[in-house]
Amino acid sequence: MSTTFVSQRAGSGSVTLPRVVAGEWIKFRSLRSSWITLVVASALTIGLGALFCWATMSRWDHLPADERLAFTPAEHSLRGYFLAQMAIGVLGVLVVTGEYSTGMIRASLSAVPKRLPVLWAKALVFGAVTWVVATASVLVAFFTGQAILASKHLDTTLSAPGVTRVVLGTGLYLTAIGLLAVALGTLVRNTAGGIASVFGLLLVLPLLSEALPSSWQDNIIPYLPSNAGQALAHVTRAPHEMAPWAGFGLLCGYVAVALAAAAVVLKRRDA
Question: What is residue 271's predicted lDDT score, i.e. its pLDDT?
Answer without folding.
Answer: 62
